[in-house]
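Usage

Read records sequentially. Each one opens with the input sequence:
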Amino acid sequence: MTENEFDVLWQRAEAEGYGQRLAAEYPVWRQKQRRTLSIVAALLIVVTVAFSVFTIQQRQFRNYEKVYCNRVGTPDAQWATLAAEMLLEE
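and closes with the structure output:
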């Protein structure tokens, strides 16, 4: 047997050992991968729902700082007060 043949056989035997070890560890690795993907998906759903709830609340509670009216003589503060009173009434 030549040195080259010995090296080829050695590498083949070593590769078989790695292959068997990887095949034995694959189910555990796959389970961890699925768990990780499930956690990431759940977090993504939670963030999406939280963001949508937050944006809906922001739309409902806008702070109206300016009031526009076509009457020149009425000050903006009066219209802002009127609008605030109307919004607070139910």
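Summary fields computed downstream for this record:
- The chain has a mean pLDDT of 83.
- The chain has two helices and no strands.
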